[in-house]
Design brief:
78 residues; alpha/beta; three-stranded parallel beta sheet; 3 strands
């Protein structure tokens, strides 16, 4: 599924129009479960903050990230 299609109900505006064409093959909030072309969801939990694992998710193949905090200068759309 394309990222734009997946996120359309959330009314997200993409900074760059080509970002909405990114292919997403899966979704995970655990960076160790990320595979190539997955969407990583970074959430702040009671024991861990997923934002601390964003770089791990990117190394594991995440093609886009959704998070709760402001982030810049990532290698993939956020």
């Amino acid at each position: 599924m394309r990222l734009g299609t997946l996120l359309k109900p959330l009314l997200i505006n993409f900074r760059k129009s080509h970002q909405q064409d990114i292919e997403i093959k899966g979704i995970a909030f655990n960076s160790s479960k990320i595979e190539k072309n997955y969407l990583f969801i970074a959430i702040t939990g009671n024991h861990n903050d997923g934002h601390h694992f964003i770089q791990d998710a990117i190394k594991n193949g995440a093609s886009a990230i959704i998070g709760e905090q402001e982030m810049e200068s990532l290698a993939v759309p956020y």
